[in-house]
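Posting for a labmate who doesn't have an account.
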Amino acid sequence: MSQEKQPVYTTSEIGGIRAPNNFQAIDATYYNLTDTGGRPIAGLMVLLDRLHRPVSAELHVYDDVNELARDNALRQSQVLLQERYYSRQAVPLRLLEVRQERRSMEVTLPTTPVGGSETGKPQNGLPWQRIAAVAGGVLLVLALLWGLTRLWGGRSGTEDVGTDASIALTTDETADAAPADTATGEGAESATVDGTFIDPGTELPTSVNARSDLAVGTRIQIRPGLQAYLLPSPDAGAEESVGFIQDGQVATILRGPVQRRGESDTIVWWYVVTETGDEGWAPANTSKLTLLEPVE
């Protein structure tokens, strides 16, 4: 007796499940772990929140690997998490044993975008028209803030610019200050500025916007309405930040200063530790603003 071809159902027709709006996507990064011969032994999946911070991790160890390879995968996972992520809390790492299937199946996807998606991802929440309207409003506000910043930027760097001048001001100047060529801080042996050799004893011009009353041991805070990245070194980029110093936080200067050439002013960097335990290099100023000030 011939077998009849089984019908193909969509997820919307199986068990009353509707896809994809009933499912919430969770961002994650997957790492394929191998042994010294390049053979896959496990997979590490790091689950992330909306700010791409690690929430938890799962180590999927294949059931056909030996105990030595299993321990190697666990060590690789721990090192990878510690070197590529940071968190104020311990991140749980679950160890799961999985069986590799040597077969695969193909899933047919819609040929047109689903729910307004152009990337193949399900779209949840607001329709694209409302999202576009919100995005346009945000861009308009940012443009107004930029205009106000340009208008008042030429005034004294110690005057309050208000709560609207937040990350953008410190981020732009931090990125501008970090790649500078000259180092006059600790251990500088030789340096160049714009391709010209600078004697180790030669200093950059005195900063206009950095406070001169800061020193090792001083308790400091960032000016109201501002925040700045804490970096592993004054030459690191914003994407390598190890934390923030924010409005209302108090920190203590541990060492420094280190100077870097900014867009139009010398940027002074101090290594600080906040009351929450975050440590890193913080800029005392930008080319237009004073950022750090002593706690009265």
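Reply:
Got it, the structure tokens are right above this. The first helix runs from residue 67 to 84.
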